[in-house]
Amino acid sequence: MNDLEFGTRNKKGDWAPSQHLELPPFWSWPPSLGRVLGWVMGYVWPWNLVAIVTALLWWQLVVPDAGTLRTLGWGWALQLFAANWLGLFAYYGFFEWRYYRRRVQQRQFKYNGRFPAEQPSDVFWFRSQNIDNFLRSFLVSVPIGTAIEVLLLWAFANGWAPAVSWSDHSVYLVCLVLLAPVLHEVHFFVIHRLIHWGPLYRWVHSVHHNSVNPSPWSSMSMHPVEGAAYFGVALWTLLIPSHPFLAVFLFHAAAFGAIVGHLGFDQLALPGGGAQKSSAYAHYLHHKFFEVNYCDNGSVPLDRWFGSWHDGSPEGERLMQERFSKKKERLNAA
Ligand SMILES: [Zn+2]
Ligand SMILES: [Zn+2]
Description:
The chain is mainly alpha-helical. It has a domain at about 45-270. Helices cover about 55% and strands about 5% of the residues. The chain contains twelve helices and four strands, in the order ββαααααααααββααα. The chain has helices spanning about 35-45, 45-60, 65-70, 75-100, 130-155, 170-195, 200-210, 225-230, 245-255, 280-290, 300-305, 315-334, and strands at about 5-10, 15, 265-270, 275. The strands form two sheets. Strands 1-2 form a two-stranded antiparallel sheet. Strands 3-4 form a two-stranded antiparallel ribbon. A hairpin with a 5-residue loop joins strand 1 (about 5-10) and strand 2 (about 15). Helix 6 packs across helix 9. The longest helix is centred in the middle third of the chain and has 29 residues, at about 130-155. It is globular and about 60 Å long. The structure holds zinc ion (2 copies). One zinc ion binds near residues 192, 196, 209 and 286. One zinc ion binds next to helix 7. Keywords: Membrane, Transmembrane, Transmembrane helix. InterPro entries: Fatty_acid_hydroxylase (IPR006694), Sterol_Desaturase_Related (IPR050307).
């Protein structure tokens, strides 16, 4: 692995890719068929596939039948919580252990030249980003997300949510499942933009931004209010006619998907050789500069439309600085 073939490293040891971020190809005209096909592959493989496969596994093995779900009970709720907790711990733990503990590729392709363990700080519980982020993710966010999932399954079982059956509406439901990650992206952009508003930022979102150098444990490290808003994406099933599986899938897309922007590496060395692109750079730039890339723009270029897109290029940097100076002028004038 030689990351200098793909990017540059500055004096601080931070690596940046030479290839700039690109917006989804079907938003530019004329769209190139090759690039659209490449995008479709990247939409499913690998990150969304993890959410689909785990949601199907949970649906088959963990989620009880509608008869049980009709009554809210600690038994099945705790069973679901245990499965979510252990599944997410194993998944996140794998990345943390392989790339941050064992450091199989050291600092190759690492955006920030340092590891969180090397940077103790008073902003974190026990002065440790790793301990703080792990506790907030697994003792706060996962229970909140599971609670929302439990309430939705209970609502569906009692006929309080608009449900359609697989047998009558299979094509519609498959389309909904395939579009769910887009819904997640738009939902995330809206709530994220909202909690960047001064008072909400200081009260709520600053907790997540304490991690300027994010790692896997940072992914779900949030204030409880942000955790509820983030996993609240599954509540859309109360408005959109769907199926309880969609509520489970939206939880999985949010929970297993959160890691993507927080991997910290542009390419990951795979256990059997070869490497996998991470798609983490857009959100890494958000952690670095705060007021850019409110979503990953993986399917809908919301940041481009609202003027907050940073593609990692010198031009992206210039546009951001221009925006920051204008904001400063406005604040000074006020
Ligand atoms: Zn983040
Ligand atoms: Zn933010």
